[in-house]
Amino acid sequence: IIFHNVGSLGNLSVETFRMANVEELRQYYDLNVFKVISLNTQFLKIFEDVEDRVIIVNITSLCAIKPMGGMAYYCTGKAAREMYFKVLAEEKKNIRVLNYAPGPVETSMIDYIVSEAVNENLKDVFVSFKNQGSLLMPEITAKKCVKVLLAGKFGPGEHVDFFDD
């Protein structure tokens, strides 16, 4: 089993229509997409003989399937990664692939969004999550992910969110 959990938010201080720094974009995609694909490729080479027992979990986000203003880097990176794993699941039907969205988790990422985002609506959403106490503790969403894996009732490359039944 491998969990792909690397993730960064990217530049939250630039609006989508002003994303002109190609080098910054390359660095973002290098970490959040290309290195994940490279690591996954090496993992599959090592376990090629037992791939029917391989489980791949990509930690994704609602942002992979729903646009969120002010988070173009994050949304597009998560969407690209999720699609890669869906295509992999389509090609390698004997490998179990899950795209798991853990929900809004209490991490330093939330504080970064609140302090760095230029999009006021984005800030307001996460300030509201914090103020209402609706952020999830990491261990709660991790347990849900394990429960989903043990139940095995997800389709190939399916996007499963913490809040799904």
TrEMBL record:
Record GO terms (molecular function): sepiapterin reductase (NADP+) activity
GO BP: any one term: tetrahydrobiopterin biosynthetic process
Coiled coil: none
Record organism: Erora quaderna
Subcellular location, principal: cytoplasm
Domain of life of the native organism: Eukaryota
Subcellular location: Cytoplasm
GO CC list: cytoplasm
Pfam family, one: adh_short
Keyword list, A-Z: Cytoplasm, NADP, Oxidoreductase
Name by which UniProt lists this protein: Sepiapterin reductase
SUPFAM superfamilies: NAD(P)-binding Rossmann-fold domains
